[in-house]
Design brief:
The protein has one helix and 20 strands. With 181 residues, it is an alpha/beta fold. The protein has one domain: UDP N-Acetylglucosamine Acyltransferase, domain 1 (3 Solenoid), CATH 2.160.10.10. The strands form two sheets. Strands 1, 2, 4, 6, 8, 9, 11, 12, 14, 15, 17 and 18 form a twelve-stranded parallel sheet that branches. The chain has an eight-stranded mixed sheet with strand order 3-5-7-10-13-16-19-20. The chain is globular and about 55 Å long.
Length: 181
C-alpha cells in the first residue's frame, strides 16, 4: 500500500480504513472512518486537497484528483465504481458514481444521486440531489425512488464489511510471512 506525503503533507486516514496494497493515496488527503480504497485506485491530493467522507468506497482502478484552485470533496456513503475518474469539485453523500464514469472540472453532484456507468459529467455541470443521470453528455433521466436510495447506503455498508475482511486477512498474511522468515 502506498500512503505517502507530497510536499510534507501526509494523508490523514481514519483508523478503520482499508487501503488495498496496490492503491496509492498521496498528499493532502483526508479519508473518513469505514472507507475503502480498492486495488489500483489513486487518490492524489497534490495540487489541492481531497476529502473523502465516511463509509465510502473507491473501487478498483478509480482515480480521484483535484483542480489546482479547488478541492475535491466526496460525501459519506458514496460508491465510486471501477475505473471512474473523479476530477470534480463535489460528490454529495449517498451517491453511486458508475463504472467508467468521468466527472471533470468544477462539476458538482448533489446528494442521493446515481451517475450511470460510462456517464460524462462536463465541466461546471451541477446535478441536483435525488437524480438518476446517464449518458454522454449526461442527462437527468428521472428522480430516484426511496428503495433505490436505501440500496445505495446498504451497498456502502456491505463494502465496509468486505473491506474489514480484506484488512484482517491482509494483516494475518503479513504476520505469517514475517513469522516464516
Amino acid at each position: 500500500m502506498a500512503v505517502f506525503p507530497y510536499k510534507g503533507q501526509m494523508p490523514d486516514v481514519a483508523e478503520d480504513v482499508f487501503i488495498a496494497p496496490t492503491a496509492s493515496v498521496v498528499g493532502d488527503v483526508r479519508i473518513g472512518a469505514g472507507t475503502n480504497i480498492w486495488f489500483g485506485s489513486v487518490v492524489r491530493g497534490d495540487v489541492n486537497s481531497v476529502v473523502i467522507g465516511k463509509h465510502t468506497n473507491v473501487q478498483d482502478n478509480a482515480t480521484i484528483h483535484t483542480m489546482s484552485d479547488a478541492p475535491t470533496i466526496i460525501g459519506d456513503h458514496v460508491t465510486i465504481g471501477h475505473n471512474a475518474v473523479v476530477h470534480c469539485s463535489k460528490v454529495g453523500s449517498n451517491c453511486l458514481i458508475g463504472m467508467g464514469s468521468v466527472l471533470i472540472g468544477y462539476s458538482e453532484i448533489g446528494d442521493n444521486c446515481v451517475i450511470g456507468a460510462d456517464t460524462f459529467i462536463a465541466q461546471h455541470k451541477k446535478i441536483p440531489s435525488g437524480c438518476l443521470v446517464y449518458g454522454n453528455p449526461a442527462k437527468i433521466i428521472r428522480e430516484l425512488r426511496e428503495d433505490e436510495l436505501e440500496a445505495l447506503k446498504a451497498s456502502t455498508e456491505n463494502y465496509y464489511r468486505l473491506g474489514q475482511i480484506y484488512a484482517k486477512e491482509l494483516e494475518e498474511y503479513v504476520a505469517k510471512e514475517k513469522a516464516d522468515k
